[in-house]
Design goal:
It is built from 13 helices and 23 strands. The chain has 2 domains: 294 residues, Aminopeptidase (3-Layer(aba) Sandwich), CATH 3.40.630; 136 residues, Roll (Aminopeptidase i, Domain 2), CATH 2.30.250.10. It has 466 residues and is α/β, with parallel strands linked by helices.
Length: 466
């Protein structure tokens, strides 16, 4: 028989705020749903290690759910299910709702599908001391030393001199070779280890090892380089000049795996930000809504959202305007009535590095998806900083949708910071707030998230759509 709660205990329950572990809050059926959903997410991660592959995955998934391709100028009506592909590297999947667009606006979920990686340079191949290497230029914010001495796969496309586009994906099958970035043995690493961590490996040392077998002809020079070129030509029709029009990336060769004896966590490459892109995509594909909803899976966030496939490109605004025009709505009114969840990951509190976090305002693993009212650095520089009214509106949605969630910021004030696509969407006069999954070891070749937080993110998007 439970003891009666004191007046103070009752008041504390009513007035105090405490984060809630989703696994503890979930019943047996919901916990089962969490684990089942995680299996689909892991399959997505293994299939989509680049933004091109994530875009392709989203398109195929959309087709299976009855969505069809949209082109500017196509007619639209309530109930239409469409996807719009931007240069094969970003995609917007959307449903046209029945509600008045000028009054209701659009519900936007903006996530990015690029991730930190090692890109291959345009004139990369060389031979030295019995080995052939590819020169690289890393993409996004990484700790360079983390990318040495691990198995790497090569993904991307090569456009040949005749215009043919060839897809490359080597290192994922157990039968494939893998690739490698050399590190220095500890026996000779005294000087290296005495330096700053950022200087353990220089950018120009991130050379990918791709061969070591000399071509069998005593009359040619650079035999190992020629051996690599001969393999590339035989398998893909590639000659060295074709690297000039190639987009190739080295990514970790291992797949997503459960972490821990209880399998509560997922370790994988690319959680940032595919852990938000997959729930955004599946929430929209699997569920009907009266609102007009767009899942915007974009590129280039890791380098400032630039270029023709980043969120700063006008094509996304143009698409929204096209939808408005097709539905006979004034686009300026639509923008003003629209709402956006800028869905990107945040840092999970790590007790092993507690000195860089302010615990009260850090995301705790398995306590649900995390809302960041502001991002930016130090004095909120570069942040959207959502207004209280919109945060309150989203809170109400989550309460009605039974979403377990939390608030967070990215580390202590003056320690660091980061940015998302939120500020670019907000510039369109659209209320926007950041919402995403907490990540351990963000931007490492292998990051860790909680399955509960992934599913919480999915439920949050459902509440937002409904």
């Amino acid at each position: 028989m439970s003891e009666k709660k004191s007046k103070g205990q009752e008041l504390q329950k009513e007035l105090a705020y405490k984060k809630q572990n989703y696994y503890e809050a979930a019943g047996k059926e919901e916990r089962k749903a969490i684990f089942e959903y995680a299996e689909g997410y892991k399959a997505f991660l293994d299939a989509a290690k680049t933004e091109r592959e994530a875009c392709d995955y989203a398109v195929e998934a959309a087709k299976k759910c009855g969505f069809s391709e949209y082109r500017f100028g196509d007619p639209l009506k309530a109930g239409d299910k469409k996807y719009f592909v931007n240069r094969g590297k970003s995609v917007v999947v959307f449903r046209v709702g029945s509600k008045n667009l000028e009054e209701d606006g659009m519900r936007l979920i903006a996530s990015h599908i690029d991730a930190p990686r090692i890109d291959i340079k345009q004139n990369p191949l060389y031979e030295d001391s019995g080995m052939a290497f590819l020169k690289t230029h890393y993409y996004g914010g990484i700790k360079k030393y983390q990318w040495t001495a691990i198995p790497l796969a090569l993904h991307g496309v090569v456009v040949l001199k005749d215009g043919t586009k060839v897809t490359v994906r080597v290192g994922e099958s157990p039968k494939d070779p893998v690739f490698y970035i050399n590190d220095l043995l500890p026996h000779l690493g005294g000087e290296q280890m005495s330096g700053h961590a950022n200087k353990l490996i220089d950018g120009e040392q991130l050379n990918v090892l791709v061969g070591g077998l000399p071509y069998d002809d005593k009359d040619v020079s650079e035999k190992i380089k020629l051996s690599v070129l001969s393999v590339l030509h035989k398998q893909y029709g590639i000659c060295e000049e074709d690297f000039l029009s190639a987009e190739l990336s080295a990514v970790p060769a291992y797949g997503a795996r459960d972490v821990g004896f209880d399998r509560a966590l997922i370790g994988a490459y690319g959680h940032d930000d595919r852990v938000c892109a997959y729930p955004a995509l599946t929430a929209l594909l699997w569920n009907e809504t009266e609102h007009t909803v767009l899942a915007m899976l974009v590129d280039k966030e890791e380098i400032g959202s630039e270029g023709t496939t980043g969120i700063q490109c006008k094509v996304y605004e143009d698409l929204m305007e096209e939808i408005s025009l097709a539905m006979g709505a004034n686009f300026r009114k639509v923008r003003m009535a629209s709402k956006c969840l800028s869905s990107d990951v945040t840092a999970a509190y790590d007790p092993n590095f507690a000195n860089v976090y302010e615990r009260n305002n850090s995301a705790i693993l398995s306590c649900g998806t995390a809302m960041c009212k502001f991002t930016g650095a130090r004095g909120k520089s570069g942040s959207n900083d959502a207004n209280a009214e919109f945060v309150g509106e989203v809170r109400k949605m989550f309460k009605e949708g039974g979403v377990v969630w939390q608030t967070a910021e990215l580390g202590k004030v003056d320690v660091g910071g980061g940015g998302t696509v939120a500020k670019f969407v907000a510039q369109l006069n659209i209320d926007t707030v950041d919402l995403g999954v907490p990540v351990i070891s963000m931007h490492a070749p292998w990051e860790v998230v909680s399955k509960a937080d992934v599913y919480s993110n999915y439920k949050a998007f459902l509440a937002f759509m409904k």
